[in-house]
Design brief:
By secondary structure, the protein is of the alpha/beta class. It has 5 helices and 16 strands. The radius of gyration is 18 Å and the shape is globular. Bound molecules: flavin-adenine dinucleotide and FE2/S2 (inorganic) cluster. FE2/S2 (inorganic) cluster (FES) binds next to loops.
Length: 265
């Protein structure tokens, strides 16, 4: 983990409220794993006072070396709105890589990756890493859910990796109509995975946790809590656990990836 001033390499709009932000970084990212995150804030603006956490969407490479990180960001409030307006060459304070990552088990027979909306951000990197570790594209299925078509992100990237993608929208305009978790359960009953990896809104993860518990499948989720420091100092990211010996854990340092059996949803 390190703190540095990074330059915006690009800021590409994907939808009216989602953009890809490429940031240069000098050092410290060579051992980054999917699921880890960074804290980012513009340096020449008063607001936001604190950095905001974002999953690492991809690593930028130059001459075989990691030269930056790319983030996939949805505008939610002040911090993300300010980042959305940054131009190429602007400076940001970058802290990372932070947290743990997904624990990949390449020997498992079947893997499901489940994304809710912007929760797709760490899962493209995860899918790439799984394939690099020898997981075949036939062993991996992707589920992407959102309220409407505009919330379905990362489809092209998964298609490029030749991974089968299930699309689910609540309004039914794209893919299946309903909740992504219902689709996951339908497919679990046909092709039971050994492990599920997911990222998305808390409510989606809570439903998914019930489903995997019912079917006795292991599941790791990346949780998106509020975060003040990203380093275990401010307690803003506390997660209530089922472990009586440590009933509260930090999403920033004990996570953001946790086993669903640990979390008290
Ligand atoms: C480990 C981690 C990884 C993340 N990765 C990504 C990512 O890759 N891409 C991305 O777009 N976002 C990601 N997020 C969420 C992102 O950090 C927040 O959307 C961002 O901090 C909002 O900042 P803001 O200043 O725009 O909004 P604020 O002005 O701080 O908040 C606006 C409103 O949104 C609510 N809010 C803010 N953050 C959250 C949250 N995490 N959950 C629920 N409600 C919230 C606030 O309570 C407030 O009502 C991640 C969060 C975590 C913890
Ligand atoms: S974000 Fe400050 S303790 Fe986790």
């Amino acid at each position: 983990m390190n703190r540095q001033i990074a330059k915006v390499l690009w800021n590409r709009s994907i939808t009216p409220v989602v953009f890809r932000l490429g940031l240069s970084c000098q050092t410290g990212y060579s051992h980054t794993v999917p699921g880890q995150f960074v804290m980012v804030r513009p340096v020449d603006q008063l607001l936001p006072l604190l950095g905001r956490p974002f999953s690492i969407y991809s690593l930028i490479k130059k001459n075989g070396q990691i030269s930056g990180v790319e983030l996939l960001i949805k505008v939610i409030g002040t911090g993300t709105d300010r980042l959305a307006k940054l131009k190429e060459g602007a400076s940001v304070a970058l802290l990372g890589p932070l947290g743990n990552g997904f624990d990949i088990h390449p020997d498992d027979g079947r893997h499901f990756l489940v994304a809710g909306g912007i929760g797709v951000a760490p899962l493209v990197f995860l899918a790439e890493k799984m394939i690099a570790k020898g997981v075949s594209t036939r062993q991996c299925e992707i589920f992407i859910g959102g309220r409407s078509s505009a919330d379905l992100l990362g489809i092209d990237q998964f298609n490029t990796l030749n991974l089968p993608v299930h699309l689910v929208t609540e309004d039914g305009r794209t893919g299946e109509k309903g909740l992504v978790t219902s689709r996951v359960e339908q497919i679990i009953k046909i092709r039971r995975p050994d492990r599920v990896y997911a990222c998305g809104p808390w409510a989606m993860l809570a439903v998914l946790a019930d489903i995997v518990e019912k079917h006795r499948i292991q599941c790791q989720v990346s949780i998106e809590t509020m975060m003040g420091c990203g380093m275990g100092a401010c307690l803003s990211c506390v997660v209530h656990t089922r472990d009586p010996s440590t009933p509260y854990r930090h999403a920033c340092t004990d996570g953001p990836v946790m086993d669903t059996r640990l979390i008290r949803f």
